[in-house]
Amino acid sequence: MSPGTDPAAAGEIAWEEDGTGPVLRFSGVIGREAVRRFRRLVPPASWPARADLGAVTTLDAAGIELLVHLARKPRRRGGELELVALPTHLGPVLARAGLSRLVPRPDGTPTSA
User: Fold this and answer.
1) Mean per-residue pLDDT for 83-95?
2) What's the CA dihedral at 66, 71, 72, 73 to 10 degrees?
């Protein structure tokens, strides 16, 4: 690591479009700084009801809190948050945080929160 390099800055949450529609793509270390950057750039009104965590290496308390907020938003309109990808090492993290309903099914199909 070079001087002045912040390892927490490696995380990113990006609003993207795919064949199904808008999706938030999480990657790297999702901590306080990544969540702060995301919240400054993407207003809650445009948060999609789909998230892809497939490239996440670490998810700390700030990242978990963001997932809780992401799940609440579509629920207010009668929808659900769809988690389209999750690395296996994050399943237990979500379970310990009481978010096991976000963990995709064993057959790989997405679940809703």
Assistant:
1) 89
2) 90
